[in-house]
Give the backbone structure.
Amino acid sequence: MKPVNVVVIGAGAAGGIVAKELATAGLTVVVLERGKWYTPHDCRKDDLRNQRTTLLGNAFGPEDEDGPRVVVDGRGKVRSVVPSDGAYQNNASCVGGGTLSYGAQAWRYLPQDFRMRSTYGVPEGSSLEDWPISYDDLEPFYEKAEYEIGISGDYSGTPFHAPRRNPLPMLPLPPNREFGILEPAAKRLGLHPFHLPMARNSVPYNGRGPCMRCRWCCGFACEADAKNGSQNTVLPVALATGNCELRTECMVTQILTDDRGRARGASYVDSRGYQQEQLADVVVVSACAIESARLLLNSKSRLFPAGLGNRYDQVGRHLQGHHYTGAVGYFDFDTYDDVGPGASIAVTDYNHGTPGLTGGGMLANEFIRLPIHMIDKLPDGTPKWGIRHKQAMRAWHRRSIVVMGPTQQIPTAAARVSVDPAVRDRWELPVARIEGNVHPQTYDIGAVQAKRAEAWLKEAGAIETSVMSYRSETVSAGQHQAGTCRMGNDPHGSVVNKICQVHDVDNLFVIDGSVHVTNGGFNPALTIMAVAYYASAALVREWKGTRFRS
């Protein structure tokens, strides 16, 4: 195939932005995506087959027949899990990646989130570290993401937000009933509630209409095209330049290197099952934390016997996601108004500053709960089946509110991705092996956050509450996975430098959530996008200077 300037592996939140930035700068780009380009018409509203309740498979891929992952729990038990098993820690496999079906919360991290080690020290047994870049480095790129992707919301109700130069480009959606119940209660507690930021059109924006407020949102593709991801914002711009080609259903098997140790392209299996090679001057890996690490580890050669970027055994380490905790409140009046997306109000008073805690987290009301989502949110002691279960569902589905949020996870080097020596996927590639557990202090943060959510609900009038706080036997990753190719100045403790360039291979970049040093107490999508804009700008500068041929 004709060589190009850049091959981008993955068309998700980061890969779409990288493709757009490079193509509009005049570079020729090929994007290789293992999944399909789905539309809402391809993904019927099936409550049992979506991203949040993968009971009958994943509506946005991968399919179970694509192959398993191997999971090792905290007790050393090894098992093979398919993508429809929650322990697989799935992210979507399609054009747009998770941004096709996510809930679309679009948070900036706080300045302290980039300086966790300096702020709190290093908890025993953790690998907590500072980022090599600061919030100020990313601020212009956060703003660029907010305006190009399209974010609605309003931070004016809280002082606990990152400094910003301009407001969000769109006002928030009108408040729903839960907002009206929770806002005065938060203020009575001395908190600072506000309209949370969302990658969702509240008004017509960039040629697409506003949110139609349906209940099928988080976990579903948006049939109004008002939920903003890479598939309906940056990728169309990249393709319109004529400099970018997107190839779907193409599974990359290896990053190719030459006898000098430089990346020279990617080998992949195309949609017809044929092995292909795409040569390029630069390779960018944007396949999400677990799959990006797996690809680097599977790209072995004489010069890189342990995999690319893995000279110091750092690829795959520090895997993290978010530990979600909160509470359910049960009310003696209707709280449900069937106005989507449901999530509407948040507080960030608790993200930092609590004595004894290393960070904290955001709390917000949850997305609309379809009946299937209510199964594990009924009052304590409710049977899992039978007439009492049905009575509880009828009684509380419309009279409950869930408040929860992601806690700042404390990373450990032992939570990691490697490749399994025996198990292979349908392309005959060694599958990802996930092992380790969550640092104990993460559970401490989650337990405190759950009690805070409960207090908020009680103040709002809940007559009964149920706290959601738990401990897992496996590492947390899922749709918020991060950390396996962390950025840093020292190659002994990181995989890429501060512009996402692999330390040992100057024309190889990893640009996605895997470079996050810490994952903040927020949904990470907007930070993934901001880092993609930031690293793309650096890549273009270097291309215009040396073209990576020095």
In short: The chain has nine helices and 18 strands. The first helix runs from residue 13 to 24.
